[in-house]
Amino acid sequence: MSTAQDVTDATFADMVLNSSDTIMVDFWAEWCGPCRAVSPILDAIAAEHADKIKIVKLNVDDNPQMAMKYQITSIPAMKVFRGGEVVKTVIGAKPKPAIEADLAEFLV
Amino acid sequence: MREIIIIGSGPAGYTAAIYAARANLRPLLIASSVEAGGELMKTTEVENYPGFADGIQGPDLMMAMQAQAERFGTEIVLDDVTKLELDGEVKRVTLGNGDVYEALAVIFATGSAYRKLGIDDEDRMSGHGVSWCATCDGFFFRQKTIAVVGGGDSAMEEATFLTRFAEKVYVIHRKDSLRASKTMQDRAFNDPKIEFLWNKEVVHIYGDELVTGIGVMDTVDGTESTIDLSGLFIAIGADPRTHLVHGQLDLNPDGTIAVAGRSSRTNITGVFAAGDVIDPTYRQAVTAAGSGTVAALDAEHYLAGLPKELLAKAESQSVTV
């Protein structure tokens, strides 16, 4: 079970867009094997860099509006938000070092 | 040091682990960090694996194989191998987290990786309409027009699966007949949402943020045309995943690892290979499982012939170095 908080269509504005933190949203679904594989890696990154980045999860089955708004066509898709804007997109399950490299600018 | 390390967690790797574990070789299986379970984790119904009369979901089959391997003492590590040193009696395996493991025998069962079309914008549009995984991404193409490229079983399976979501599914194949099995072909031919485009090759992917269309070229007369669509699923086969052993293990001209006759023995003593990584032809879950069995038995035989002092080392110091 992931340690990340869930975000929904209803809470997206509050938790992500209006947040002053750097927030990564993990778009996922129950039926997506690669999403399950990448989830513990994201948990680990969140734990190791708790002061730099927050990671929340959005279930695309239950929250189609945000999935559509952010034009998700492939999951897992991880989008980093700062000040309400998407500043980085990472797509696909990758090993931890690869995701850390993708997120390097936010982790320093 | 250990007796045996198995690299790969598809049917070949897990079956090798089941056999090696039951032979008391206490195998360590490196399963990969995000691709554990291999190719079958991305499939849905598996209808041709013997023993499952009503079919089984690919991920369920792999979880069952993993549980069976663990039941007999296989230790599983969810990480990726970054370096392999296979020369000499003791083989060294380095993982992404920096851990190094040593063993007297290695079974290499890394399977294969999806082939790309090799055209402009394929990588850029990956995840933006270009996909290699229908079960992962089909959901996002409800009521859309999409295409599947390829003529094999996996292309037919993807096309048929995608009709659950899409309004229309083109199957684009560069020849005028399919490689897919009769059952899969019939299923696709009889599906009203599927339209076949024969003798066509994808040459362009159009779209800025998201895929909006593709350009196809007729392989017979060379004419080009454009198709408006929102998704392109690529299922044109896979290549053996051998980058870790380049320069160490001999390869065949087709890219698979060369093994001696019907065995799993590579050119390096104590190194065995199994599954899709040695098989250019059949590439089924059940042939990979059989191949994993062969590798475990070959490795067991090899270990039995090693000097007792060496084996004693493996038995007494079965710890991470």
UniProtKB/TrEMBL annotation, chain A:
Which source organism? Salinibacterium xinjiangense
> Where is each Thioredoxin domain found?
1-108
Q: Name the source's superkingdom.
A: Bacteria
Q: Disulfide bond among the record's keywords?
A: yes
Its organism's taxonomic lineage begins at: Bacteria, Bacillati, Actinomycetota, Actinomycetes, Micrococcales
Q: PANTHER family, from UniProt?
A: GEO12009P1 (PTHR45663:SF11)
Q: Which CDD domains match?
A: TRX_family
Example of a GO MF term: protein-disulfide reductase activity
Q: Name one Pfam family in it.
A: Thioredoxin
Keywords from the UniProt entry: Disulfide bond, Electron transport, Redox-active center, Transport
> One biological process GO term for this chain?
cell redox homeostasis
What is the name of the protein in this document? Thioredoxin
List site positions: Deprotonates C-terminal active site Cys: D26
Q: Where is the active site?
A: C32, C35
Q: Where is this site: Contributes to redox potential value?
A: G33, P34
Q: Could you list the residue ranges that cross the membrane?
A: none
- Cysteines engaged in disulfide bonds, as pairs: C32-C35
Q: Which family does it belong to?
A: Belongs to the thioredoxin family.
Give any Gene Ontology cellular component.
Answer: cytosol
Automatic annotation (TrEMBL), chain B:
Needed cofactors, names only, are:
FAD
Q: Which Gene3D superfamilies does the entry link to?
A: FAD/NAD(P)-binding domain
Give an example GO molecular function. Answer: thioredoxin-disulfide reductase (NADPH) activity
The keyword NADP is assigned to this record: yes
Name the domain of life: Bacteria
Q: Which UniProt keywords apply?
A: Disulfide bond, FAD, Flavoprotein, NADP, Oxidoreductase, Redox-active center
Q: What class of enzyme is it?
A: oxidoreductase
Where is it found, in Gene Ontology cellular component terms?
cytoplasm
Enzyme Commission number(s): 1.8.1.9
Catalytic activity reads: [thioredoxin]-dithiol + NADP(+) = [thioredoxin]-disulfide + NADPH + H(+)
The Gene Ontology biological process terms listed for this entry are:
removal of superoxide radicals
Cofactor remark: Binds 1 FAD per subunit.
The similarity annotation says: Belongs to the class-II pyridine nucleotide-disulfide oxidoreductase family.
Q: How does it assemble?
A: Homodimer.
Recorded hits in NCBIfam families, A to Z, give: TRX_reduct
Report the protein name in the record.
Thioredoxin reductase
